[in-house]
Amino acid sequence: MVTTATVPEFLTPTTLKSTIRFINSHRQFFGRRFLDPIPNSSSRIFAVSEISKLVTEFDPEIPLERASTPPSSWYTDPRFYSFELDRVFYGGWQVVGFSEQIKDNRDFFTGRLGDVEFVVCRDDNGMIHAFHNVCSHHASILASGNGKKSCFVCPYHGWTYSLSGSLVKATRMTGIENFALNEMGLKPLRVAAWGPFVLLKMTKTPLSQEEVETDGVVETEWLGTSAGRLSQGGVDSQLSFICRREYTIDCNWKVFCDNYLDGGYHVPYAHKGLMSGLNLESYSTTIFERVSIQECGGNSKAGEEGGFDRLGSRALYAFVYPNFMINRYGPWMDTNLVIPLGSRKCKVVFDYFLDPCLKDDEAFIKRSLEESERVQMEDVVLCESVQRGLESVAYDKGRYALVEKAMHHFHCLLHQNLKL
Ligand code: FES
Ligand SMILES: [Fe+2]
């Protein structure tokens, strides 16, 4: 018999309730024993305390010099992954695409993050909208891929929605009672643009149209005081979209982020080709609220010797918590969006943008993309190797080097989102 006295002290009635609600909404991961409806059942308290224990195994109060990394369970446990989606990804701004994808009226694109299927479009008046991409009739996914549409017609039974989300036609519903078209529109999501990027604020619970419209503070919430530094670095300058490359990697999404955030530590060992274009002595890392910026000077000799210099005189690598990277170097910018696909799988979407004056230089583009692809494939091998190591019984926690302060910052932000 377990009494309420066994509830850990850090669980107030409110956090306990929201955690139980979370567990019940993710029963595929928690199994029946966590669904027991009897209040104060020992099994349910066990589930809450298990997750909490995993979170508290990392202590953000310990300075980097003495800190250990989060335990491997953060990267391997399916229960932790599910909890993390809820706490880290649903609620904050997420980049989901770039403005050129919805440059003209009637352009749209779709995507998925966790369980949230979304569609973003520009209506006939030039307004940007985002919706849960789910038909109100029997839940079919409404739009697929990207392109141009004057309305969204459900591929299942033909219900039709306008680009502003209202249901304009429900086929064969004559004779159905208590049915109002204006109550069955698409569920809106908060959408915003910053520089070339399109962002959504994911929520698991649908919002009303009024709630969607109240948000206009994306720069402060998303980038904080780093916005000026990023603008100065040319992140929101006018560049032309060149192409997209996608990589599915057998590792937890955080392994890819950690690899990005090690302050250039792995470059001399794992990217010998890249190293020749960088002056690693000049590497610096600046931490902002939810952003870290790593910068590195270019090696001017690289351009002189080979006559080919894609990196230019300075490279800026910005990490925007939790899963977006902006790399600005020479005439290029590429962005990496890390989409979690499970506790040990993620997809990384690379979008490449180039100074418009070079967008017709096919040879330069081809060679730059080949070099970038080579670096990326080297990182894929590293990340998949780390994931296998994290799953080994031989490893639980590691240590940081001083250059890895952006990684430590990332882990502290995760802890802040995850703590109960
Ligand atoms: S599920 Fe969309 S019209 Fe039936
Ligand atoms: Fe790398």
UniProtKB/TrEMBL annotation:
Keyword Disulfide bond: no
This protein's name: Choline monooxygenase, chloroplastic
One of the GO BP terms on file: glycine betaine biosynthetic process from choline
Required cofactor(s): [2Fe-2S] cluster; Fe cation
GO molecular function: 2 iron, 2 sulfur cluster binding; choline monooxygenase activity; iron ion binding
Pathway stated in the Swiss-Prot or TrEMBL entry: Amine and polyamine biosynthesis; betaine biosynthesis via choline pathway; betaine aldehyde from choline (monooxygenase route): step 1/1
This protein's record includes keyword Metal-binding: yes
Organism of origin: Arabis alpina
Enzyme class: oxidoreductase
Protein family according to the UniProt entry: Belongs to the choline monooxygenase family.
